[in-house]
Amino acid sequence: MKAARRLVIACATVIEEVSHLLPPGMECRTLDFGLHSDPGRLRRALQDAIDASRDEADEIILGYGFCSQGIIGIKAAGSTLVVPRVDDCIAIFLGSSSAYRRQSRSEPGTYYLTKGWIEAGDGGPFAEFTRMAARHGKKNAERLVRLMLRNYKRLALIDTGQYTLERYRDYARRMAEQFGLRYEEIEGSTNLVKKMLNGPWDDEFIVVQPGRAIEFEDFFRNRSSAS
Amino acid sequence: MAKEKTRQALIAHLADLDEGYVLKTVRRLLDRGDDPLTIISDCEHAMRLVGERYERQEYYLSGLLMAGEIFREVIVMSQPSMEERITGNASGRVLLGTVQGDIHDIGKDIAALALRCYGFTVEDLGVDVPPQRFLASVQNNPPDIIGLSGLLIAAYESMRETVQLVRSHTAPGQPAIPFIIGGSTLSEPIARFVGADFWVTDALEGVRICQRITQKKSPT
Fold first, then answer.
1. A71 and A124, same structural domain?
2. What is the ipTM of this complex?
3. Partner of B100 at 20 to 30 A CA spacing, among A163, B12, B16, B69?
4. Are residues A225 and B161, on separate chains, in Cβ contact within 8 Å?
5. B40-54 pLDDT, tens per residue?
6. Do B103 and A109 touch (CB under 8 A)?
């Protein structure tokens, strides 16, 4: 039997963790990280990328999570879709949903960073700071970033072991210091990425047959606060 | 005519995020006795323009936040004049909080301020509030409405847990307290998952719903 042709479509931040682990011959496409702040745009871009890959793959692996519902409604006419059953990419970097929950419970006010987030301009308060400072002055920029980070206590740089942290550590430490956050490095994992690329696609994944759309319920089925 | 021109200028400057102009103008309008509700309503109009600019990608997230911050300052400035105008019974009592596992409260705080402006009594439990604390507060002093706020997915589950816990302690025959959930990432399927009666992505829409609920309760 011929092996299924697999294609990965992932967010630019996730690609950083995926590219080293791609099995030989598996193709990978990257979508802009900035899409994450606009779920409607993310949905359209993702659907366009899937439609453009028609007939190229039997199985399309999506390097995304629920991502503020950006993934909901996505379908592929001729391919099976596979997506990790996670809230967002932080769970992918930490290796599982349960690892993400453990981190969130220990400190709900955590801002997470990875190499991918930093290189993509992080899209969050720190990138906004640079943009705001240029447009509205440093004082206003500081005020808004502090507003965005209100109640945040910790800045956690995730070490997935895929690259040296030195450069990113400097940036993350600097941001933590500037905005009064406790700096921590936390251990990530490539477990979920490896499973995503190679299987088995167990309960940690949503597998959607060709023609069916990814639904809200796929993410929230059997979900309880104890999990 | 001059008044109309001032109103249009206020709307335009808030939409342009011109904090200095907006605050100076609002101060002047309040000092000369203009209706604070008209000022707030004009600012709401400007906030809608800001939202449209964000959707057209003319503004980034920081633009939305800046507008929210100016609007918050306008509400704070208007509050004393609003309180002078509110007579008789308060509009109702709202219990608010950002649910357990979430710490985002910009929308909740704007909702709390605006609710107070419209005569509601607000008990704000803060952020990362466990379901049991909501329940304790309901049992101690039952509100007319419960507002649960949150941005993260973890919040959806906490919202659901809170709704279920409070409802499971509602005595038979006792009217159920309506739940409104608020947060910029919410949607109809999430509201169904949570079991909420209403959902909003906009703090001021939440205030309107509170007004409709309490008006229905006491049609005087």
1. no
2. 0.84
3. B69
4. yes
5. 989 989 998 998 898
6. yes
